[in-house]
Amino acid sequence: MKYRAFTLRLLLLAATSLLTDCSTQAAKTAVKPTAKAKSMAASSKGKATDKMLAVKDDELDEYATAPDISDPLEKLNRGTFWVNDQLYTFIFRPISKGYQLILPRPVRKGIDNAFENVKYPVRVVNCTLQGKFKRAGQETGKFVVNTVGGVGGIFRPAQRIPALANLPEEDTAQTFGKWGIPNGPYLVLPFLGPSSVRDGVGLVGDYVLNPVNWPYFRWHGSRTNHDWVIVPPLANTLRSTPAQMELYDTITKDAVDTYLSARSAYSQNRAEAIKK
Amino acid sequence: MTLRFLLPLLLAAAPLAASAQLAEAQTRLKSAVTEVLTVADRAGSRSSLPEKLRPVLNKYVSFETMTKRAVGPGWRQFTPAQQQQATQLFSTLIIRSYSGKFTPGEHPAITYQTAVSPAAGRVDVPTSMVYLGSQYSVTYRMEQMRITDVVIEGVSLIANYRSQLDAQFKKGGANGVISSLTQSVSRAQ
Prior knowledge:
heterodimer, A: mainly alpha, 2 strands, B: 189 residues, Nuclear Transport Factor 2, Chain: A, six-stranded antiparallel sheet, 6 strands, 59% helix, 20% strand
């Protein structure tokens, strides 16, 4: 029983911050055309002239080079995607609705701001690893201004300072991308959704760098009772769930094929994030 | 001799014309946003919004170009009737999706950035939008002063649908695309 409780706790803990860190990525890669796209282009070469014209036609072919990602595990991924869909529908969406019902939007916004502010180490370390020293300085400035002037990050006064406003998100997977590490195969992770081998490894980095998980690392396995360590990561997951569900709905609601829509949105978004 | 005098004038006129086109595209986009928000504010209910927005969007958005590009090279194998049907279904899907983003009484704060022309005849208008406390980077792609794609946080609407409709076309041809669009449109909201 104790083992089961521990397992559940570990599972929830794993899902929490990873879900949060993944949240910004979920909608968000190899820029290279996929093998499929290449083979399509190759096959069109051998076909009749009108088909060649069709491929060359700017009007129609502009999107053939849109960033995509190789998906050799599509069958498995589609299965995980379906399981996630059920989880979102029957567990996470009701939780999200309840959270939104209990807390008014300004309060939720303040909580979101505070948790995003705390993620400063994720951003500053990755800015530094990518050689973006000026951005790392701006991140530090933003953190100081929001923490001191924004009551621990609940408010975002830095948004009123042009040099500190609207800094792009940074995470470990983006650093890997910047270093030239390719995506590897597309992966749909249980709970967390769209990812890739590279980005999945990146999530571990984000997890370690996010201070909401530090108490757990410090006191995990301690003989004294430190059950509270699960609260910050759980709260982090809870507060990010409405945004996650909204994002998921935006991507899938009017899709023709929800799986392909999520994959395309993920690969395009990540490719763009790495460029910034 | 005349050409020698005219050439500098012509060379100077080209960038001026291009910059006028960029400014015009931005003005046109601003008009579209204003009109859409006015209609959205006047709409009695959220369910009536798609039909009320349709005339305004038809004026500013080229749904035919959008559909053609979302389908991809397979579009050439559609009959004119199938093209018309696909455009009608795709526009319904896009308008419904777009209308669903509105929260009555809430207006986005939009900052228009400098428009660029990535190719002849095309203008991209990047914007930064704050809506319901969240910030988004949105780029409107325009041709002949009509919107042909919207790129939100790097995700192109048309590239996203291309990945789906192209797969449908490979599986079932034009009828497969139309059938999948029909299913999506008829899906309960």
